[in-house]
Amino acid sequence: MNVHEDIARVLIDEDVIRFRIDEMAPEIINSLEGAPIVVVALLKGALVFTADLFRRLPVRLDVECINVASYHGGTESSGEVQFLDKKLPDVAGKNVLLVDDILDTGRTLQAVSEAMLGQGASMVRTCVLLAKDKERDGMQEADYVGFSIDDEFVVGYGLDYKGKYRNLPYVGVLDPSVI
Ligand code: IMP
Ligand code: MG
């Protein structure tokens, strides 16, 4: 029943995440000046990270959400990014900060960045809490990365396995018996 029992090991503790976000925020703000700012969260994974990050950005900004799916319930990226919303947010003429939980193959950030530019965004900056240390053959890297991690499946702080574990306050590795 207790969700912590399914975690084999904690990778990044909540205090460490908080500290890192405080460090990242000023740099991110500086890069966004010059046009109206809109923070775009990729749901559901970026829910927690966005909530913590954008409260550290003390400037006038809008926030929007986009629903995308790429994992379809497993522990490997399906390789196909699906847009689940009927309509994309209005970002024309704005500086967009695209926020996701984790960079894996890079396809999600690439597809959504292109979509935002297609909507007329003046500029797109990308930010992820985590980036898996791997080759992303030509795919997009993120402008801002909280932590670089080994190429393994992680949950918590917004990241899920089959929809669960998003509510863990830390990033951890699931016990193999759960998968
Ligand atoms: P990419 O498009 O391959 O870069 O995958 C990024 C998306 O896959 C993220 O938005 C996450 O939703 C999901 N994802 C990638 N790696 C993990 C993981 O280790 N745990 C949970 N979700 C992940
Ligand atoms: Mg995601």
Summarize the structure.
This protein is an alpha/beta fold and 179 residues long.
- Summarize the main sheet: 6 strands, mixed
What gap, in angstroms, lies between the N and C termini? Answer: 16 Å
Query: How large is the count of helical segments?
Result: 3
Structural class assignment: alpha/beta
The hetero compounds bound to this protein are: inosinic acid, magnesium ion
What proportion strand? Answer: 25-35%
Q: What is the helical fraction, as a range of percent?
A: 10-25%
What's the Cα radius of gyration? 16 Å
- Poorly predicted spans: none
Largest sheet: spatial strand order: 4-3-2-5-6-7
Record field, number of beta strands = 8
Overall geometry: globular
Mean pLDDT: 95
What does this structure look like?
The protein has 179 residues and is an alpha/beta fold. The chain contains 3 helices and 8 strands. It has a 6-stranded mixed β-sheet with strand order 4-3-2-5-6-7, with helices on both faces. The two termini are 16 Å apart. The model has no long low-confidence stretch (mean pLDDT 95). The chain binds inosinic acid and magnesium ion. Residues 42, 45, 70-71, 77, 100-108, 153-155, 159-160 line the site of inosinic acid. Magnesium ion (MG) binds at residues 42, 45, 100-101.
